[in-house]
Amino acid sequence: MAPRTPRSGTDPIRHTAIVGDVAAMWSKLAWDVDVFRDIQTGYPHEQQPLAYAAINVCIAATSLRNWAETAVRSDARASGRAFDRQGFDSDLTVAVPAQAMCEAIANTAKHSRFADGEWPGGRVSLEWEEGDEDSPPGWILRYGVEGAVVPSLSVNRFGSLPETWWAHLRDLGLVEGDFHLPEWQQNKLRRIFGHSPSID
User: Would you say 164 and 95 are in contact if contact means Cβ atoms under 8 Å apart?
Assistant: First the structure.
């Protein structure tokens, strides 16, 4: 799909180097999710890297929401329609269930004060698990709301973001095609299995 360039103002690549459209920001979100997953499995005894990577995922998801909203707003303006902010928000809540959690965490990190926003009663817990024959002992993050019986594992909540976001962006007309791994992630898997990616 051809990059969606801004209709006005300076090209974002001037500051981001390679992130110039919604699809590129989606790839950035997928990158942060992958980094979090690698830290969860590779550094299970470290608290800080895990927590920092989780915050980065949430910031990336919030940034992607902003990019998507800007693109949809621009499309509406170009076609002479009013932008439906309430409809945009409600559709996003349904399409990407983990988004409200991510935005609450990102806003708390950004503004240096607690802000639960659309995630009322939400909380994060850092817990030590002893492990078993399938997984080593280590720290894990759980996310849930007050009163939840079993808060969900962060690796599961974050792992859903790339696919649910891609489907939503496709519904918005901002990307095309079925969900697929970003090119950098495909190259990573090729290296793992002994195949060097080609350099164009």
Answer: yes
Cβ neighbours, 10 Å, residue 116: 17
Q: Which uninterrupted H or E stretch holds 36?
A: helix 22-42
Which tokens go with 84?
A: 């439906």
Phi and psi torsions of 86, nearest 5°:
-65, -40
Residue 106, burial from CB neighbour count under 10 angstroms (0-12, 13-18, 19+): buried
Among 182, 169, 180, CA closest to 68: 169
- For 27-85, write each residue's pLDDT tens digit: 999 999 999 999 988 888 999 999 999 999 999 999 999 999 999 999 999 999 999 99
CA 34 to chain CA centroid, Å, is 10
Inter-residue contact 116 to 138 (CB < 8 Å)? no
Distance CA 174, CA 105 (A): 26
Structure tokens, 114 = 């607690």
The one-letter code for the residue type at 70 is T
Q: What is the pLDDT of residues 85-135, one digit of tens each?
A: 999 999 999 999 999 999 999 999 998 888 777 888 888 889 998 878 777
